[in-house]
Amino acid sequence: MTTPVPFTSDDTARLAAALDQAVADGATPGGVIALGTLGDAPRFLTSGRIADELGDAAPGADTVYDIASLTKVVATWPLVCQAIDAELLTQAAPVREFLPPIDGPAPSGEATIEQLLTHTAGLRAATRLDHYRGTHQPLHELLCREPLEAEPPAEHRYVNRGYILLGLALAHTHRRPLDELARALWDDLGMTGTTYGPVARGPRVAPTDRRLPGAPRIWGQAHDDNAALLGGVAGHAGVFSTARDLARYAAHLIDPATRLHGWLRASALPFAPIEAGLDRGLSWICAPGNVAYHHGFTGTSLYLAPTAGRYLAICTNAVYHGEARRRIAPLRALALKTVTAT
């Protein structure tokens, strides 16, 4: 049985100072850190403000953030695990078997569910769905017919299009839209503040960047271009959530009494090396100390240490300042070190 290792007052002080520093450095207008241990209520650290457009309004546990690629582990990964349990998907089978029929060769469609989850399918790295505008073929067919860049199982290469295919496969096998599947999952977990976009812009929603000088900010719409082209609903991006909901989700994942925990244990085993000390599991990055984590491009992160009964989530809209997003790297590094320490 897991014996939780509580965060210390020094831990929280260092994290609060790092979040304050990120705001002071202009890395993000503000942000929220949720941290907690198994069986205890989460604690929320906040700093800064949501956005200039909202004046001095401070972010909080219920501020809604575009979580970008955390979609992969908050929506697609658990839904794939559910589908494997229900024998609707098979981990070792090609993804084309779970999509509408495709006549003829489909090289990318031969990638297995496992290879897509672990970013080892050898798919094209750059995802530009705008190149398919004006075509009449269905998206799954266009993606599956693409040539591979490497024969699978290939070296790890982070690719969004694999999760787009997984989202399409989930919708097809269930005969239900991806956002409906995700809504049912989140409702079961009590994650009422989590949804696929678009969401109505307002004082609780953190905007992201503006693509052109003087243009309105992206606000309540998916920041990711490809997710936006798909109407905001995709397997790789498009989900909005709150620090409170990410804490609730993380608590389920580290709880040995839940099915989610069983999936996490199986998914946090190393499948493919990323770099020294880091491996890719099924969706998750695996770090020393039995830690699993994932980042979102907009400035979000989720860290899980099930052995220590700890979790930590970061919610920021760091893309608000464009390239300043890289300045949250020290905060992310400290978060990983803190959740790992025992």
TrEMBL record:
> Where does the Beta-lactamase-related domain start and stop, copy by copy?
16-336
Keyword check for Hydrolase: yes
Classify the source by domain of life.
Bacteria
Keywords from UniProt, A to Z, are:
Hydrolase
SUPFAM superfamilies the UniProt entry points to: beta-lactamase/transpeptidase-like (SSF56601)
Q: Give yes or no: UniProt keyword Zinc-finger.
A: no
> What GO MF annotations does this protein's record show?
hydrolase activity
Q: Where are the transmembrane segments?
A: none
Q: What is this protein called?
A: Serine hydrolase
What is the source species? Streptomyces katrae
The upper taxonomy is: Bacteria, Bacillati, Actinomycetota, Actinomycetes, Kitasatosporales
